[in-house]
Structures are given as C-alpha cells and as structure tokens.
C-alpha cells in the first residue's frame, strides 16, 4: 500500500469532515464561466514522507511524473518563467502574449545575490553550500519576494524549500532532507503533483551532492478542495490502493544541470483510472 495514498486519504477526509467553507466570502479565483471558485479548507496541514521507504506517488490515480519533473526542472534548473520552455500547458492560463508568467518561480531562482565567496543564484548557492558546508542550517530557496509580487501573474504557492543534512548512525552517506513550505494548495489538482516534484528535486540534489534522499516534510497553510472537486475527491478516496511504484534517476548524472526528463525511471506504477478534465480555477 502506498503511504502517499494513506496520507492523501486522511488529509482529504479531514478537509471534507472538518474543513470550513469560503462560500459567500470574497475570493479571488474564478471558474472558466466566471463563477467564484469557493473551497472547503483546512488550515495548517503537515505531511511527512520518507524517500528511503518509498517514492510518494499516489496510486489512487496516476500522477504525471514526467510532466511534474519537467515543471520542476523548468523552475530550478532552467530558471525560466516562460511557458514556451515547458512541455505541458498547465501554466498557459497565467502567461502573457510572450509566454511569460512575470517575475515568478524560475525567475526568482535565477536572481543572484552577493556572498563572501562571490555572486550566486538561489540554486547554485544551495549546491555550493551542500558541497562546502553541508551541516549549515541556512540552505534554502525562497521564491516569495515581496518587492516583485506585483509583477508575478500568480503568487508562488510552494515557495520555500529548506534543505537539511543529517548523518544517521551507521549510514554510509549523509541524508539530505527537505522541508517544503506551501501557503496554498489545490489538493485535487496539485497536491501529489507538488509532492512528487519536490521529492524528485530532493533526489536530484542528493545524488549530485553524494547524499541519500531522506525525509520530505510538506507544510501547507491553506489546504483546500475546490467546490467543483469535492465529489471527485469523495470518489477518489474510496478507490483501491496499490503498492508505491519504484522511481529512480539515472545514476550516471553527477551535475544537477545535466538532468533531463529521460533520466527518470518509473517501474511498476499500478494506479486507478485517470480523472479526466479536472477543472482548474484561475
Ligand atoms: N487553481 C489552481 N490549481 C493549481 O493546481 C494551480 C493553479 N491554479 N495555478 C498554477 C498551477 C498550474 N498547476 C497545475 C495545473 C493543472 C494540472 C493538471 O491538470 N495536471 C494533470 C496532468 C497534466 C499532465 O499530464 O501534464 C493531472 O491529471 O493532474 C497540474 C498542475 C498547479 N497550479
Ligand atoms: O504549485 C502549485 C501552484 C498553484 N497551486 C494552487 C493553490 C491555489 O488553489 C491556487 C493559487 O491561488 P491563490 O489565491 O494565489 O492561493 O493555485 C497549487 O496547489 N500548487
């Protein structure tokens, strides 16, 4: 049984049974037809995954792991804010005529800052610190730049990834863990999508740093199910669970900037039928 399924089912049941509704409140997102997109929400959800046990992919339905990896590479490796650099079309609704989503996501990762050792962008600094000073408690990326928010087409949702190294007694290599802070989560459309993305990012960074990927702690401030998703979620969480798939990366890659979607290996991914055409609130 996939542990990610168990966590997903308990989170969704909790939101449905104990969540509060935003119905009647002033909300920003809209459905395609212009109707306000209300949610059932729960504040302060924390899910813990352990990549040493299994990869956290949902089996209730399929998570598009290649597309999820493509998006995380778009942000942290290509450092792009243009949807033309992305294979999927999930960001198209937030792009302008030139394909840009403004000073969001990848743009922020590429911004450089001055350090005693020279200028680094956010990702290069993470890779440098993990190599030179792995037990530092200051290793993180942060996409939430207040002074640029007015130029972002959507404010970053999963915005802060904190990397932390532990040396477990008897372990051959140090363990690389991550704490992901997310201010807002569309549980049906993107929860497992985001979890798998950051699990893959953790695996890539661990591999090029000579470490083992360990814990992924996902902290969500506003975990919500949109009104038009509630019945879909009710059906989804009643489905059978399968064992987690085996997910690995091409072990020959030693430079973070060399990873491509072809380096992702997914074996034995059994899952329920795909939910087609999930409406996305914009
Ligand atoms: N309301 C809302 N929810 C989101 O999840 C979301 C936004 N807005 N705005 C920006 C991005 C776009 N995101 C999305 C949008 C769609 C899918 C989606 O439809 N995924 C499909 C698979 C897509 C594929 O195969 O490439 C799925 O079945 O989950 C996922 C993430 C996440 N973000
Ligand atoms: O990676 C992502 C990106 C976006 N979301 C969801 C979370 C919310 O439903 C919307 C953003 O709306 P806000 O009003 O800015 O919170 O997009 C996600 O879950 N994961």
UniProtKB/TrEMBL annotation:
Q: What is any one GO biological process for this UniProt entry?
A: dTTP biosynthetic process
Q: Where is the active site?
A: 157 (nucleophile)
Q: Where in the cell is it found?
A: Cytoplasm
The EC number(s) this enzyme carries: 2.1.1.45
InterPro entries the record matches: Thymidate_synth/dCMP_Mease, Thymidate_synth/dCMP_Mease_dom, Thymidate_synth/dCMP_Mease_sf, Thymidylate_synthase
Q: Could you confirm whether the keyword Iron appears in this record?
A: no
Q: Main location per UniProt?
A: cytoplasm
Q: Record keywords: Ubl conjugation included? A: no
Alphabetically sorted, this entry's keywords are: Cytoplasm, Methyltransferase, Nucleotide biosynthesis, Transferase
Reaction catalysed by this enzyme: dUMP + (6R)-5,10-methylene-5,6,7,8-tetrahydrofolate = 7,8-dihydrofolate + dTMP
Binding sites annotated in the UniProt record for dUMP:
137-138, 183-186, 194, 224-226
GO MF term set: thymidylate synthase activity
> Which Pfam families would you find in this protein's record?
Thymidylat_synt
Thymidylate synthase/dCMP hydroxymethylase domain residues are 8-277
Query: Per UniProt, where does (6R)-5,10-methylene-5,6,7,8-tetrahydrofolate bind?
Result: 186, 281
Provide the assembly information: Homodimer.
| NCBIfam families for the chain | thym_sym (TIGR03284)
Q: Which family is this sequence assigned to?
A: Belongs to the thymidylate synthase family. Bacterial-type ThyA subfamily.
Q: What does this protein do?
A: Catalyzes the reductive methylation of 2'-deoxyuridine-5'-monophosphate (dUMP) to 2'-deoxythymidine-5'-monophosphate (dTMP) while utilizing 5,10-methylenetetrahydrofolate (mTHF) as the methyl donor and reductant in the reaction, yielding dihydrofolate (DHF) as a by-product. This enzymatic reaction provides an intracellular de novo source of dTMP, an essential precursor for DNA biosynthesis.
HAMAP family given in the database record: Thymidy_synth_bact
- Protein name, entry field: Thymidylate synthase
Q: Which organism is it from?
A: Thermophilibacter immobilis
Question: What gene name is given for the protein in this entry?
Answer: thyA
